[in-house]
Amino acid sequence: MRQILWDPTKKNRAAPSRQLLAWALSTVAACVALPAIAAMPDTPPSAPTHAGTAQMQVHRDWQFADDGVTFSNRMEGARLNDVTRISAGHYQITIKPETLPINPSPWYGFSISSTHDQQVCVDFRYEHGKPRYWPNLSTDGHHWQRATEAQFTDAADGDKQLCAKVGTTPLRVFAQNPVSLDDFAQWEAQLRNRVPLHEQVIGQSVQGRPLRMFTFGNPEAKRAVLIIGRQHPPETTGSGALIGFVDQLSSDAPLARRFRQDTFIILVPVLNPDGVVEGHWRGNADGKDINRDWGTFTEPETRAVRDALGHELHDAGRDLAFAIDFHSTWHDVFYTVDEDPSRAPGGVLRRWMDSMYAKYPGRIHEKANAAKSTVFKNWTFTQFHAPAVTYEVGDRTSAQDLGELAHFAADSLMQLLSPATQPQGQ
């Protein structure tokens, strides 16, 4: 794949966002410095605007004066529900979901500090979940390192124990390198340096945060590509893939410039901002999995996108040519709609997936299901008769691999949707 190097004298290069992607996903270090994460208040920002089932965590500090140790969840994206002292320098933390039933993938995030340098051991106690995420550690929130196997071991009760040296500078411990709302805002600013980017606030989340939709490309085009992400808060490798995918669509490469001439790109990068801020395992501030709300539309986040797409597609007389929803799971998976004719040989979705399989043999597998459940890809397919795919990116995908995958996926799609490569009737 062609490597693009950042020349700071040239404005239309994508390296700043590639740096953000590397910061967000590298298990070693970041390439950019980001502002400090603001402290969180003792209570949630606001109550849900309508009845929900979420049990919101309280943002607080746990101070153990005799040991000189403090735990805190006062950071965006943090999740820590309780801390108890077992002995000097030995503690148990409790990680709880925001609602039940829930996907058993407990997200966590917290900091530990001490009045003096010492070794601290933490037993992880997960309620309603089993260990999924290996901890990443940082003392500045910018440079992250995966805990070693000597640091993160099996505990006597079958859960996990982390032992690490801590001091006056807080040690952040997160299930994945967090990608915050501020990080997305910086990336969006970088997009504006490459393409004319139109921003719309299409609604508000349960807690009142703005839901942002971005569009670029040709506003007069009669076909559109739709990209959404971060329906599930912990899935940061999916965010990294979305960033790389959009970077390639917005690049200065000839293929991307031609593609934007006859395509309107619709982007909703963060559909669940409340869940991201609150460190939820799965749901929004109502405790609802919004990727199970497409068709029922009980939540303001899904309703906002539904209404905005009605305007951008139906009212504007545009056809949706392709839709992709970025997520994360244990391994790379394409979730598709079984009835989708574009999955057949010669179809756009089939050729796009085949190109990915050929480039990365054995890495990604397709799982097709009937369009019965109320997930985004099913609603998009039935509503707009468009090829729709949920791209689940593996949790442990490195920044380099993720960048290459996302850039190739975007290039392949742009090539397939070019008029010269479209088979008759597709």
Could you walk me through the main structural features you see in this protein, from its secondary elements to its overall organization?
The chain is α+β, with helices and mostly antiparallel strands and 426 residues long. It has helices spanning 15-25, 181-192, 236-249, 254-261, 273-278, 300-315, 348-359, 376-384, 399-417, and strands at residues 61-64, 69-72, 82-87, 90-95, 109-114, 118-126, 136-138, 145-146, 152-154, 160-166, 171-174, 198-204, 210-217, 223-229, 264-268, 319-329, 333-337, 365-369, 388-394. The strands form three sheets. It has an eight-stranded mixed beta sheet, sandwiched between helices. Helix 1 (15-25) packs antiparallel against helix 3 and helix 7 (348-359) packs antiparallel against helix 9. It is elongated and about 70 Å long. The model is unreliable at 1-16 and 23-51 (pLDDT under 50).
* Architecture (CATH level 2) name of the largest domain: 3-Layer(aba) Sandwich
Question: What profile does the largest beta sheet have?
Answer: 8 strands, mixed
CATH homologous superfamily annotation of the largest domain: Zn peptidases
If you compute it from the alpha carbons, what radius of gyration comes out, rounded to the nearest whole angstrom?
A: 22 Å
Write down the CATH class of the largest domain: Alpha Beta
Residue-averaged pLDDT: 89
- From the 3D structure, determine the CATH topology of the largest domain: Aminopeptidase
Task: Write the element-wise H/E pattern from the N-terminal end onward.
Answer: HEEEEEEEEEEEHEEEHHEHHEEHEHEH
**Which structural class fits the helix and strand makeup?**
alpha+beta
Shape: elongated
